[in-house]
Amino acid sequence: MFSVLWVVFIPFIFAALTPLIQKFIGEDRIGLWGVIAALLSFGGVLSLAGYGLGDEPLYVIYEWAPTFGLTLGFYIDGLSWLFAFLISGIGVLINLYAYWYLHKPDPFGRFFAYLLFFMGSMLGLVLSSNLIILIIFWELTTISSFLLIGYWSHTERARYGAVKSILVTSVGGLAMIGGAVILTVITGTAEFPELIKKAAFIQEHALFFPILLLLMLGAFSKSAQSPFHIWLPDAMEAPTPVSAFLHSSTMVKAGVFLIARVHPIFSGREEWILLIASIGLITMVLGAYYALRKVDLKAILAYSTVSQLGLMIMALGFADVLGAKATAFHIMNHAAFKGMLFLVVGIIDHETGTRDISRLSGLRFTMPKTAVLAFIGAFASAGIPLFNGFLSKELIFEAAYDQIGVASWMAVFPVFAVVGSILTFTYSMKIFFRVFYGEEAKELPKHPHDPPFGMLFSPGLLAAVTVIVGILPFIAERFVNAATAAITQQPADFYLTIWHGFTPALWMSVVTVAIGIVLYSRKALLEVLHSKPPFGLTVNAMYDWWYPNIMLGAEKLIGVFQSQKIRFYFMYILGMVVVLCGWVLIRDGHFRFIPHDLMHAETYEYLGALAFILATIGVALFRSRLAKVISLGVVGYMLCATFIVLRAPDLALTQLLVDIVTVILFVLVIYFLPQLKEVKESLSVKIRDLAVAGLTGAFVTVFVLAVYAHRHTTSVAEYFLDNAYELAGGTNVVNVILVDFRTFDTLGEIIVLAIAGLGVYALVRMGVAHKKKKDSSI
Amino acid sequence: MNLQEIIVAFFLLVGIFFIITGTVGLLRLPDFYNRIHAPTKATTLGVSSTILGAVIHFYGFPPADGFKELLAILFIFLTAPVGAHMLAKAAYHSKIDLWKDTIVDERAGKRVIGEEKMPSEEKLEKEEEERTPE
Amino acid sequence: MKISRIIFHIVLALLWCMMHNSFHPATFIIGYLLAWASTSMFMILSKYKPFRMNIWEAIKLFFVFLKEMIVANIQIAYIIISPPMNIRPGLVEYPLDIKNEGAIVLLANMISLTPGTLSVDIAEDRKYIYVHAMVMETPDQLKQKIKDTFERRILKMLGEEAEERRP
Amino acid sequence: MISLILHRVTRVIIHILLIFSIFLLLKGHNEPGGGFIAGLMASVSIVLVYLTYDIETVKRFMPISYPAMIALGLFFATGMGLGGVVLGYPFLTQTFDYFQIPLVGEIELATALIFDIGVFLTVVGATLLIISSIGEGS
Amino acid sequence: MIGLLAIIIGFLVGTGTYLILKKTAFKVALGLVLYGQAANLLIITMGGVKLGEPPIILREAGISYSDPLVQALILTAIVIGFGVTSYLLVLVYRAYQAHDSDSVDLFEEVDDK
Amino acid sequence: MINNLAVYPILIPLVAAIIQLFFAKNTFVQRVLSVVSSALILIAVVFLYIDVRTNGIQVYWMSDWVAPFGITIVADLLACFMLFLSALASLAMSAYAMVDIDANREKYFHFPLFQLLLMGINGAFLTGDIFNLFVMYEVMLMASYVLLAHGSEARQLRGSLHYVMINLFASTFFLFGIGLIYGITGTLNMADIAVAVQNADPDTQGLLTAVSMMLFVVFGVKTALVPLFFWMPDAYPQPPVATAAMFAAIMTKVGVYSITRTFTLMFPGDEFTLTVIKIVAVASMLIGVLGAIAQTNFRRLLAFHSVSQVGFMVLGVGFFSPMGLAGSIYFVMHHSMIKSSLFLCSGIAERLTGNRDIKKMGGIIEKHPFYSALFLIAAFSLAGLPPFSGFFGKLILLFAGAELNEYIFLAAILVGGFLTLFSMVKIWQMAYWGKREPEFNKVKVGSFIWGIIILVGMSMVLAIFVQPVYDMVLEAAEQLLDPSQYINAVLRK
Amino acid sequence: MIEYLALIILIIISLSIALCMIRVYKGPSTPDRVMALDTIAVNVLAFIVILSIVLGTEMFFDAVLVIAVIAFVGTVAISKYLMKGDIIE
Ligand code: NA
Ligand code: NA
Predicted confidence band at C43 (pLDDT cuts at 50, 70, 90)? Predict the structure, then answer.
């Protein structure tokens, strides 16, 4: 049990300690720290081989947040162990390679911290038994790969690639979260073993397809399936070890892993095949086509990866044992040869200073060792016998061919599998022959030669695996069987051999190679593929359009509302009040004209009200500010009189005093303010303002009357009247309320006043002296 | 209707009479300097007799109590002339013209009131320009 | 000086008592203390030139003023209300005999309180009060009237004699 | 000097106003008035002094720091409340009692008055701080 | 009576609204003062306009008083409104000093340094 | 002796402020008092929480007058959480302010004003009286007005002009609302109002809904919901960063708190109300984040995010289920920590580069990797990426929505999360990535980041211990959904 | 009896206040408006006195006193502004 935690968390812990260790052993040697971490993790994985390759999986759970089905659970079966094995194993090689690859002024410590962080996340992802925990690690790989891709962030391209990768993959990630939450809520669990038990229930559920689609969006975006594939080529801006690690064997396979993981839960229904196999197929063909059109070696490899991932996903989409088996095998093989190819490209880039296929040629003379490696990688990729790629591709052909039996339209799968493979064969040949054959290239940025042993070691090892598995495939049998059993939840017991006899798959391979050779040797045919983009509007162009335009659009949208003109803000608030409250009032029939009985009043009250209203309107009407203030003063007096009429002497006093002080304040401030400019308001603005004013005024009147009609019959005020004298010792109940019953309000009130005072003081005193200060002599 | 009521009524009527003349004067008189005489009337005699009437109403005649109320009269007599004076001075200062039929202006040509010079004449003039309501 | 201040204190204390509607000694003492506190706080504001005052003349002045005010009120009221407005307004320069600033202010305020006349300003050299009157026959008549009704009596009250200083 | 008349009248009336404000403060518990009204009253009267004199003069004869006055006011109000807490009552608990004082008779003393004084001081301090700050700001 | 009061409140709010829709900071401040007064009037209305004695206890039986609680609330509200209004006014004036404009609209320069 | 625990969070800052005012010239005493006050509140809140957990809702009668007549201080679990947050934030801000606030501001009452702000905030969380809530709001707002313009720089003055006006305007509607509530119910005590609302006849119910909508708009303005938020992005970037962080961390939450309280206790949500709340919440979530995307001013961008994040919290209230409310509270906690640390981060970035525009920044990670890492954690937490607190906040809301079959809102949460990530990535790649050899002002970053470390650390605690924290907030949510607990505690003791 | 009279007077006073508003509207100068404001203050004062009679309570007299003693401060402030432009030197 412990070793599971060990495997997952060792890289994290080592990553976190990197800055500290770097201080001790020096930046130059921090790479060794990474290698040690990876080795420790790899050792842990090996120690778990018994579960991964045996019959009984390991399933450990640490409770975390049961409400959300969150358990820190780990599930080690053939599938997850295979992935963990690849991740940690290749991780060791990558760390080793990077130790030689990096050079100043790159910050080494940060690189290895990111790399270990990524490795840990990836291990957590594949080992977790819980869908939500898987997603958590999934997002961690997103974050860490974001940091890795943007490692050379001083270059525009690196930032672009990193941003693109995180944005595109997190679209899927978020969808996945949605799907996982819904799935957890309807089933009550997020544990894969539990979910598998409930597969029938899930497949019956009305939300089956939404959940599947949401989860698959995650898988497709991570595994760069069309149309999400766009991020992967730009992610090649990362240092080559990163590309080799992330984009050959680990991160991009997370999607494949997820599909394999949920295979037993979802694969029973047709939607599965329709969705997954088709997307895989499209991606495979498109990816290979793009790879063929590229001249940058890394770009070729990137699209090649896209294509290969499509191939695997297509096979998983078949939802049968053969597809699962083919995928499992191809995952291994692809990791080996593609990882190696990336490292080789890294070497080429490192030694020649360029990755442009049109500038490179004839490197076999100067870099013979590298050439051998490249040869193995390219031929494995092309699916030539004796290399491992051939074997797994053949299995996929077989699986695809079998689909014809399921439904006749599914003949598209074998047909297009061949088409894709032809393209793959062609670009693989390009990789090797264009770079290593032909005239020896002149004018390269650097003088090429074979790299140091350290850099050759990792690709060399992978090359060995490629060849050995290609020749002696039974070595991989246990791995593949265990993984297949895990994917299909059925015992799997296959033999892997080079020769199956003259099966349809073999003929498909023959056709592939034959047409491939024709295609590669006929330059004219290649030219056709190169020159004309089949459609103008590519997904990439859409992304590039969308990225700045969402900002521009947001700016425009916000600019419309956030006009920085406060009158509109007021109108929004008023509008919201009037609409919400008004709607309820009208709905419930509270909206009526003033009833006659409510209008009963003394004559003097009518006259006073008239004066009040006149004064109120005056505040708005007068043009001179002083006149406005005077009118406001009158309003204050009228309010005072109103308070008297309503038997509120304290209020009348307060209002009077406040009125005077307010008038003085206004006059004081008028002095400092500029003359009111004669702002010509258009008639429509005036009408608008009047309409808004009238509407709100009427609304408040109606609201007040409606509430008054339903006024309380008893209130707490009676208590105050009853007890003010006996219990609080005062006859002025208002004052008693202020200083006794509700002292805290009064305390708050004077605090407000105190702050206002201090605030004004600070405001006036702290300001920079106003340049155009009025001549103080006046 | 007893004597006290009669006295109260008398004072109230006198009060309201002067108050209303004050208002009428405020409306009718031709220029600011004439108009300002009107409120003086309302404040002095009008308000005093109103208050007196009220005091008698509440406390009898002669009032045995209600000194506080009477204090209001004192306050008015203290403050009213100052307000009127300040306002008139300000008006004169801001060059508000005397009525065309004013018979004499012995201060003409000596417009400067007080020690200091006029503040910003333009400013006040502008204020004047704007005084017509919309 | 002391005495005038004490008198002022007493007046203030009496006002305090009036506010309370109570002339209880305790109230008075509290009022006196408050008056003392207030005048001490605003020391500068409480410095008065000492002057003697004839109480009898003061009372007489008060009633004369009352009479004048009532008469003027009625006159002016009549003018305001009568349909043809018989006003003869003017701004006159009223020459002062009084020297004491406090007394000048007293006079000026009396003028203002009497309807129909208003002190617009006191000249810088304290020699004139500028009076706006609503009705006057001639400026001299108006000045004479002010002199006779108010200024002389004020001077009397202060125990001074009016210099003959005809305008 | 803006006006002799204003000067002279202010000299007299300021004391009346202040005393009146104290009157409003003290009787607020039983009749209209109270700390806030009294505070504003006192503020207005001192504003009158500001209007009559210039700021420098007022500063000279009234060397009061308004921020300190505010602090003092808050101190009174809060301190009164805390007094209750110390004695085991909730914050801001008020009490009152009637006392016989020779010569004066029965008077009521309420802790509310202390609170009201706090209100008074804060209001005066804040209002005057505002007005004098603007005045000075010119 | 209540009808009249409601109409007055409506006018205060309406006028206040008209003013706050203006461009001049000073007018907006005026409008807000009117709004505050409307609020005060509204609250006292809600205490009822049944018009008893002012809430100063006369210690006699059978007297009905007007609602003291609303009055206390309004007093608090007036004070708070006064404090905020004063601060706002000074802010208006200081903002004018700083930018030489008493418009309420913000400028670009406010956005970024 | 009575138990004064509930009133300490109000009392401590008040007393501290008064003492600080007396020590107006001694800034050292003021600084120390600031930190001490926050620490004391924090301790008091922890004890208060324990008290509430063991003895139920704590009710404190101010001035010794029983409810509903006097002002009642009520500490329930929600209030405790909010108090905890405000104390935590103020502690972090005080630590930051020690090095950030300039002498001039210190001289002009920065510290006492801050304490009074805190008092207003805590008062708003604790009060059980609707009018007192208004008063506490005003204390808080008044202090915030002053702190916002404190320093009187030109752009501050103008920025705060809108802020003051809008809030004054909204406060008026608050008063309208209180008046109308009193008119209908005849009481101001929130528990008493709740009883009155329960007993109201059907004819009056509609009126009460209308009044509650008015309050919703008021709180919506204060908490900056769409379409009421426009004042906020111009205001919050203006003051010193410690102040801005406090505003962002706690002040907007007061509005959320009030909405929660109003629509759980006084006007328990009906169909119409909840629909309105949810629509407004979603609009805020999306429009707020779009606003953030449009900005390049660091602080404005963060301010816009608050609009969006508040939408998440209010959405939880709109769900009106235990899980929804729990999610809302959790989100409030997460956001107050994360948003304030982001603001503090922006302050450091400004100091380093002398700029507020991220376009003019770059390469911070090269020189200050640790500080950059703190920012990154906070940024990704805000964006809701796991394993940070924001992820769990969102997760709880997602679960709540899924349980109620509110799939549209689920989608909105996810879209909002994506756009948030977009904008955070934008900051990161513009300001922290970039130049290889950046040139910065001399800043002792080490002395600034303690506040950030506290806050980010707490948010990590929130994330790691999500289950216990969730259990705690769920308890609070259940308490909210059972208003009788509150009512009984207040009205019958 | 007196109450009836007082009621009539009240009507007259409120009419008077309304009429004063005409002067506020017409101006034409600021001092005219201030004067109208002053007159309104006086009218309100009288209004309160008379209303006290109608209602039979003396509780409003403090307001009377305050108007009497305070109203002129506003006038002084505006006057000083008109005179000097600056109301506090
Ligand atoms: Na930049
Ligand atoms: Na940059």
Answer: low
C neighbour chains, 3+ CB pairs within 8 Å: B, D
Are G42 and B19 an interchain contact pair (Cβ–Cβ within 8 Å)? yes
N-term to C-term CA, chain A: 88
Express as a percent the part of chain D with pLDDT over 70: 98
ipTM above 0.90, yes or no: yes
pTM (predicted TM-score): 0.93
Domain that holds residue B11: 3-98
CB contact under 8 A, D78 and F2: no
Which residues of B, range 2-61, sit inside 8 Å of G by Cβ?
A: 5, 8-9, 12-13, 15-16, 19-20, 22-24, 26-27, 32, 35-36, 38-39, 42-43, 46-47, 50-51, 53-54, 57-58
Q: Which fold has domain C55-163?
A: Alpha-Beta Plaits (3.30.70)
Amino acid letter for position F388: F
Q: Token pair of A650, please? A: 């304290």
Task: Tell whether F457 is within 8 A of chain A (Cβ).
Answer: no
Considering only CA atoms, which of E100, A558, A165 is closest in space to residue F297? A558
Question: Is the pLDDT confidence value at C1 over 70?
Answer: no
- DSSP letters for A366-392: H-HHHHHHHHHHHHHHHT-TTSHHHHH
Eight-class DSSP state of F231:
T
Q: Going by C-beta distance under 8 Å and a sequence separation of 6 or more, which residues neighbour residue F218?
A: F170, F171, F173, F174, F177
CA–CA separation, F24 vs F110, rounded Å?
10
Chain D within 8 Å of E91 (Cβ-Cβ)? no
The string of pLDDT tens digits covering residues A702-727 is 999 999 989 988 889 989 998 888 88
Positive or negative torsion for Cα B30, B32, B34, B37 = positive
Q: What subunits make at least 3 CB pairs under 8 angstroms with E?
A: A, D, F, G
Residue G87: which pLDDT band, with cuts at 50, 70 and 90?
low
| pLDDT value, residue E56 | 87
Q: Going from the N-terminus, what domains does chain A have, and what CATH number goes with each?
A: 267-531 (no CATH), 566-712 (1.20.120), 714-778 (no CATH)
Dist CA A292 CA A275 (whole Å)? 26
Distance CA F243, CA F249 (A): 10
Residue extents of the structural domains in chain C: 3-46, 55-163
Domain residue extents for chain D: 4-137
According to DSSP, the residues that pair with D110 across neighbouring strands are D96
pLDDT tens-digit series, residues A111-146: 999 999 999 999 999 999 999 999 999 999 999 999
- Closest CB to B131: pick one of A627, A675, A778: A627
| D32 closest CB neighbour out of G59, G70, G83 | G59
Nearest CB neighbour to B128, from listed G29, G46, G76: G29
Pair of tokens at residue A223: 């595994």
Among partner residues G59, G69, G76, which is closest to D51 by beta-carbon distance? G76
